[in-house]
Write a structure and sequence with these properties.
The protein has one domain: Winged helix-like DNA-binding domain superfamily/Winged helix DNA-binding domain (Arc Repressor Mutant, subunit A), CATH 1.10.10.10. The protein has 8 helices and 2 strands, in the order H-H-H-H-E-E-H-H-H-H. A two-stranded antiparallel ribbon has the order 1-2.
Length: 137
């Protein structure tokens, strides 16, 4: 069975990214994986934004379909699954770091960690490496 690619509005790179990440939940799941080392469905469901279970299941399936995450049986509990970012998913780290920095600058209510902001301002390259390394486990 051949799968069809979704219709594209254009070949614009921003349009492509929006087609993948255009809803708030997708990037929040990736955030949780990159910065909070979440790996299990229940951990994502406990995020402060209160994602509904049907949307969570849909977004995880979409991320897996786009090869941004993998899903494997949990070696400690075979009844559960563990999600992990692929290299394609890990490559989103710089973009999310830039979003954090932008929000920290313009959102007066931002919960951005000041130590994280200082690290990003002094050596973004090293911070990206550190974030990716922690997300790999």
């Amino acid at each position: 069975m051949q799968t069809r690619e979704p219709l594209r509005r254009s070949d614009c790179p921003i349009s492509y990214a929006l087609d993948l990440f255009g809803d708030k939940w997708t990037l929040l799941i990736i955030r949780d994986m990159l910065f909070k080392q979440k790996q299990r469905y229940g951990q994502f469901a406990e995020s402060e934004e209160k994602i509904s279970t049907n949307i969570l299941a849909d977004r995880l399936a979409r991320l897996e379909g786009e090869e941004l995450v993998t899903k494997e049986a949990d070696p400690e509990n075979g009844r559960q699954v563990v999600y992990a970012l692929t290299s394609k998913g890990l490559d989103l780290a710089p973009m999310l770091i830039e979003m954090i920095l932008w929000s920290a600058k313009y959102d007066r209510h931002s919960a951005a960690d000041r130590t994280f902001i200082r690290k990003a301002m002094s050596d973004r390259g090293q911070l990206v490496k550190d974030v990716k390394s922690r997300a790999r486990g």
